[in-house]
Every structure is written in C-alpha cells, then in structure tokens.
Amino acid sequence: MGLQPEKQVSLHAAFPECLSFADFEIPAFIKATELVPTIDPSYQLNPEATLAILAGFAFNRRVMLQGMHGTGKSTHIEQVAARLNWPCLRINLDGQITRMDLIGKDVIALEDGKQITCFQEGLIPWSLQRPIALILDEYDAGQPDVMFVIQRMLEREGRLTLLDQNRVINPNPGFRIFATSNTVGLGNWNGLYQGTQLLNHGQMDRWDIVAALNYLDPQEEQKILLAKVPELSKNQAMAMISLANLTRNGFAAGDISTLMSTRTLITWGENWRIFKDLQIAFSLAFLNKCESEEKALVAEYYQRCFASELEISNKSN
C-alpha cells in the first residue's frame, strides 16, 4: 500500500553535519504527505544520532535512541524523516496501550443495515503495510505482553502473524522501525525512571543499532534558544543554559527530581517574552514543577548563574 521511496539522496550532500568516512545513498520521497513531520529549521541534528537513524532508513536497520528525557530523541527521528519526506507514526508505549491496540480486535459494524463482526486492524498491522517509519516512544516502559508482540517485528524478515485471522503480513519495503528509551533495558536501576521495565536480552539483542543522544553542546543549544526567542541576548541565553545544565547534573546525581530540557528552556524564554521578568518566567516554566524541598537548591543554581536571589514562595506544593 502507498508509494515507495522515489529517489536516492547522498549522505554527505543531504546531511553535511554527519562527519562520517562512509557515504551511502538514502531512499527518500519527492513529496510530503500528511504523515510527514514538519521541518524545524532551527533544530540542531546530532551527527552521531543522525548517522544511526539514516542507517536505519537506508539499510532497514532497527535503531534505538537512548538518553535522558528531554534530549529530543523522538523529535530527532522525526526531523531526519522530515528531511526525507518519510511518513512517521509515533506510538507511546505507556501502561495504557494494550495488545489489542497494537494487533487489532473484533468490532461490531453495520453492513446493509445488519450488525456484523469484523476485524479492525491495530496500529502495527496498519503500519507494516505502508511506507512508514514507526517510532516506539518510551520503549522501556512497555508491558511484557506488548513487548512480545513487538519482538516479532524485530526479526530480520519482520513478518507479523495474525493468529485470529490466519494471516501473515509481510512488511512494506518502505516500512522502518525505531525506538526511544531512557534506559537500555535495565529498568529503574538508578531510581530516576519509575515505570521502566527490565527487558530480556533476546529483546534487546534484536536492535541492530543503539545510539546515545545526550543534551546539546551549550553553543548549539544557544543557537536553538535564540532562534526560538531572538529577543534574548546571547549572555542571557548562555546563563539560562548554564542553569539548565546545573539541573541536569543535579538530576543525574539524585539531588533533584526533575530537570530542564531544551523544551523547558524555550518555554522559559517564551514566558519571559510575555511577562518581561526572567524570575517570574523561570518560576512558571520550571521552579513550580519542583518539590518544595528542592527549591532552595534550585535557587542556589539560579544565584550562581544570574548573581541574583530567586524569590521562593513559602507555600508547600
């Protein structure tokens, strides 16, 4: 079903940020459809992660991006796909998604005025039959019965057997599969990611490429922030990023329970544009998300970056 990639683009020509000895051709579409993500010209592609994702598109490799939350893992895959005009579908593997959501279920429908029972395809059979990049978000939060459904697609042939339908689905030549995770299948071993699951070795072994995506270099993050909020000065933007990095280090050390992502930085800048006050904008974007016991430490971070005291409400959360 659907069109197949209609052209080939050169890695070095189309993605010059990928500093690689290898240069290969990547299939792409000429026109964008409604499922193709919109290109964000201010998005900074990480060279290593981009190279891994492009290998997935070019050679049908199963690619997982691992990293802390807020690093833009899913967005990174979408932005690479957008530059190839490749349709995408994101599925968040939270605790609410079920095996029936993925595989399908029997539903009652009306046909010629009569009620009949018919099979309604789930997200996976629908995707498999189309030239789509399927992105499995929060892969390490999936429930065991859901994960074993997905495991079938990770085989080299990627066929899916619908037992209830006595049917085998062969993947469309343009089907690709990606995943994002906060851990690498180790579960919540460090206490930072409640709800993540231990994944068996057989499950993880089926992923051909696992790439790490960490927070951007400060200069690159500054480019994004200034592109989104050009009214900020370079010094303001760098101070904001320095504060964000302190929260990230504090989160990794277990000192605070949340951190500032690039998205939070942009929200802070946009709030500043509205309220014309950096402290108020910061409180509304990040501080009020912190536990009461953590706010004093966050205020210390703020003082170190801006050389000014941060007013903290005495009210508890």
UniProtKB/TrEMBL annotation:
Segments forming domain CbbQ/NirQ/NorQ C-terminal: 221-288
Gene Ontology MF term list: ATP binding; ATP hydrolysis activity
Domain (ATPase dynein-related AAA): residue spans on this chain: 63-186
Keyword terms: ATP-binding, Nucleotide-binding
SUPFAM superfamilies per the UniProt record, alphabetical: P-loop containing nucleoside triphosphate hydrolases
UniProt family annotation: Belongs to the CbbQ/NirQ/NorQ/GpvN family.
Annotated protein name in UniProt: Cobaltochelatase subunit CobS
Taxonomic path: Bacteria, Pseudomonadati, Pseudomonadota, Betaproteobacteria, Burkholderiales
